[in-house]
What we know:
The complex is a heterodimer of chains A (about 280) and B (about 250). Chain A has about 280 residues and is mainly α. In chain A, about 75% of the residues lie in helices and about 0% in strands. The longest helix of chain A is centred in the first third of the chain and has 32 residues, at about 60-90. With about 250 residues, chain B is of the alpha/beta class. Chain B has ten helices and ten strands. Chain B has a six-stranded mixed β-sheet with strand order 6-7-8-3-9-10, with helices on both faces.
Amino acid sequence: MSSLRRIFSFDHIIRSLIKLSALITFGALFFIVGYIFIRGIPHLTLDMFALEYTTENVSMLPAIITTLMLVALTLVIATPIGVFTGFYLVEYAKKGNKFVDLIRITTETLSGIPSIVYGLFGMLFFVYRLGFSYSLLAGTLTAAIMVLPLIIRSTEEALMAVDDSLREASFGLGAGKLRTIFRVVLPVAMPGILSGVILSIGRVVGETAALMYTLGTAAKMTDGLFSSGRTLSLHMFVLSNEGLYVNEAYAVGVVLLLIVLAINGLSTYLSNKLRKGE
Amino acid sequence: MSKLSIRNFNLYYDDFHALKDINMEIGEKEITAFIGPSGCGKSSLLKSLNRMNDLVEGCSINGEVLLDGKNIYDKDVDVNTLRKRIGMVFQKPNPFPMSIYDNIAYGPRTHNINNKARLDEIVEKSLRGAAIWDEVKDDLKKNALRLSGGQQQRICIARALAVEPEILLMDEPTSALDPISTSKIESLVQELKDKYTIIIVTHNMQQATRVSDKTAFFLSGEVIEFNDTDTLFSIPKDKRTEDYITGRFG
């Protein structure tokens, strides 16, 4: 009787439920990662990293390089705009300013939109209206709009986390706004801003829907802003979609997974550093 | 002539009338204490003297604050130059998250002193001035945040001294500190008097009697009484001052 009561005690049930939830979460994660690794690693061959894509080797190297180019160009466009917008919102705009409210609502809305909607917009506007056709440029611009809210939000949060007393101290010494922002506020906020930028990299690397109709899915390496290409995620999508290269798709999945894991690890490291700095 | 003259000064936070028709003359190389209960306007007046209230949204003023006869609220006054002349030490120690050396050198660098030897000299002089040189001289590269609260506050004083201000505003500089650090800061304030005009806001009446030459008692945005510290505390003219200093309210 007493042992029965112990087993069914409220405390015991809650504790079991908590452990079970943790187990399910870890289990699912390990299962997915393990499954992809087991299916993918045997098919990772040197051929898949050949410089030229052919239907025999289905090389992913062009896709890797296109991914790097897309990420770099996207950041070049989105980082300055996003970071400066964040600076404007926190450091320059007056509270209760209508324009600021508008930017906030816009960024929040933008971050909630499904990525296929960005893809559709990119296709109609950049690809057709502006006549960029399926190209690196159209893909970059679409991806930049997509990650902008992420960068704005993380910049805003990092800046708001900087203690106002530091700004006061700097102003109190006769430093102007620019000097205060760049010499005092920015160094403290840097890790937070960087982790937002890194999360955007992850977002772009993992994106397919928004890029399919803007960057296109050409298998060769892009040879310019106006040429189509495919990122690693798109490459994986196309391979598995065509049905002929499912095993190779898993191999690409392995590489993609490793890249995303590395990016998340870097982001965690930076945000830990931020917390320690406070 | 007095160093700082406050004339018919009013301050509003939106509709709230926080300072009412303040008139005060502050002499050179004197220590003036502002005392009064919380929310009486003493910190607001202090922040008005180097225009830190410019940063507060909804804050507006009228009246004059004359520094050596020149109104600091005139349109042609450069706020940054003003704040170099009137330095400030805050309630909570707020060193920058950088080395001790860089903390002190921040002000001079702001005002375009970049010569290494000159900076070294200023850093040592300022740290000596704030009575903390002996404690940190071997460790100037250390992050200032790793010092104790009392040391941090003296670093902040040294940082304020480094731009060679004429007036030093101190907003309850010891309220976040332990008694030993407090007495160190108090004796430091006494030493600084030889070179600087000091205005100190304090909640602590004993502190006011210990450090100041003159004391102003604030209540509900008005200066009730402003006199020599000894006189104010021994024979207050106003009933409300008497009530406050004898602890009957506030």
